[in-house]
Amino acid sequence: MHSAVANWRIFSLSAPARFYRVTAWLNPWLWALCLVFTFAGLWMGFVVAPTDATQGEAYRIIFIHVPAAWMSMVLYLAMAFWAVLGWAWKVRMASMLARAIAPTGAIFTLLALWTGACWGKPTWGAWWVWDARLTSELILLFLYMGYLGLVASIDDVRRADHAGALLALVGVINVPVIYFSVRWWNTLHQGASISMTAAPKMASTMLTAMLLMTLAFWAYAFAVVFLRARAIAIERESDHEWVMALTLNQQNAQ
Amino acid sequence: MNYDNLHDLWELGGYGRYVWPAYGLTAWLMIAEPWLAARRLAKALSQARQQTDEEEG
Predict the structure, then answer these.
(1) B20, B5, B31, B42: which is closest to A57 by C-alpha?
(2) CB distance A247–B48 less than 8 Å?
(3) Domain-embedded: residue B43
């Protein structure tokens, strides 16, 4: 029992060092994947996919709108997961990951709302309506901003992590509300274009373009979150041995 | 090919004024965010280096 505790301790203490090393190696590959998928997705979306019969060219916003909206929800769940893990089990890297995810999640939420507005104006005739889907997505943006504001306002890092985890956890309820809003309420927003149980309601070239852009956004999210998490790890652990060893190595390499 | 020339691609049958701002902000934020994160990492590293120097020296 004692050795298991000791092993866990060593594992958790060395985690940021290992995280730093692995993600530093991974990141160039993730950026490359992001670029490749972006170019492939834009090519499919603008060159191969035909003009939509009812919406004309306006529908091409879907290739970034749907992936951004998906990322905004997935990243919230990831943020809440890591925040709670860091809170309950004192895993250092987990709390740092939660903090690293929040700005990226907020950006994707803003983009989902903005691209939605740019799509709503020509198709619905309004930039914004107080529809259940739009309103719950706006609440998601406020949750991200609330999380960011809360953790920034508390000086003690551990207490800030705990308060953030609590807020993130309470806000999780909003994610299924966003997802199912188009079914639960009579919304102006259209229903899901693809689902687990039915065939997609869109042309296969359009679907391919959207999925390629989704992969690009996934690669982007991993890369930028890892980058920020590394910065946070260095900021928090500058007096730890692994950071000193890292900076000495860099100096020797120069 | 959906468009004969760049002008058609820009116009997008009259919808360019909605589609390109949507793509524009997306591109801008997805370039600015990694740039800011990279700057934050560089700053953190240089501060850690200073701290190590002080402790070593």
Answers:
(1) B20
(2) yes
(3) yes
